[in-house]
Amino acid sequence: MTDLSHPPLPGALPDKRQVAASFSRAAASYDSVAELQRAVGNQLLARLPAATTPQRWLDLGCGTGFFSRVLGERLPASQGVALDIAEGMLNHARPLGGAEHFIAGDAERLPLQGNSCGLIFSSLAVQWCANFDAVLSEACRVLQPGGVLAFASLCVGTLDELRESWRAADGLVHVNRFRTFEAYQQLCAASGLRVLSLERQPHVLHYPDVRSLTHELKALGAHNLNPGRPGGLTGRARIVALVNAYEQFRQAQGLPATYQVVYAVLEKPL
């Protein structure tokens, strides 16, 4: 992606129907392997302005509803709306509560009225949206004046160890692509929302072996969803080559998997 002022070219990010289907299939296993998601969501919560007391909040890309329940406890006087594109996630989240409304919807075309939310919270969801301009535009429309959009996403540099190991093994695309941090900076600056904070922080997880990492990505529904990904079964020779390449990254704690996390807090002007 060279022109940061435009959304990614078609095919640069996964098709959202495939994203929805993949995360729907992962609903039952997601929470058992969601260490990164919990850590990032809690970091995002800690970045909310202290005086955040909305009448209505939106958990955008709510997944299994873990942070919908956290927000429900943290903001008991507020009405909660949990939204996700994956029906399977909503079916898992709905009986666990936390929000008054669980809605199937797309972050690029929110099925909500304008000026209807005081807070939009979105943790590790918007990286799957090809048109991030539309996400920001919709957030600006739905937020009340003075309302806050807080999101966490992933940018270039995420899973570079796995990407480089696959490149050494067969040269094919096996790892999801993400926007640059500079793209997030430029798009947020042009959004009409006031940027209160925008930063990138690495988060590193460690695994005993490659299989543990790839199993977790599949259980999360976040395995390779790229257009042009290799089809069919991965041959044993390529797996051996992948494992041997990844071993070059091994640290004392295990095999590292680095996630470059973008944290942003934006405010709609009064």
UniProtKB/TrEMBL annotation:
GO terms for molecular function: carboxyl-O-methyltransferase activity; malonyl-CoA methyltransferase activity; S-adenosylmethionine-dependent methyltransferase activity. It is an enzyme of class 2 (transferase). Keywords: Biotin biosynthesis, Methyltransferase, S-adenosyl-L-methionine, Transferase. Pfam families: Methyltransf_11. Signal peptide: none annotated. InterPro entries: BioC (IPR011814), Malonyl-ACP_OMT (IPR050602), Methyltransf_11 (IPR013216), SAM-dependent_MTases_sf (IPR029063). Residues 58-151 form the Methyltransferase type domain. It catalyses: malonyl-[ACP] + S-adenosyl-L-methionine = malonyl-[ACP] methyl ester + S-adenosyl-L-homocysteine. One of its GO terms (biological process) is methylation. Pathway: Cofactor biosynthesis; biotin biosynthesis. CDD domains: AdoMet_MTases. Its EC number is 2.1.1.197. Belongs to the methyltransferase superfamily. Converts the free carboxyl group of a malonyl-thioester to its methyl ester by transfer of a methyl group from S-adenosyl-L-methionine (SAM). It allows to synthesize pimeloyl-ACP via the fatty acid synthetic pathway. This is Malonyl-[acyl-carrier protein] O-methyltransferase. It comes from Pseudomonas antarctica.
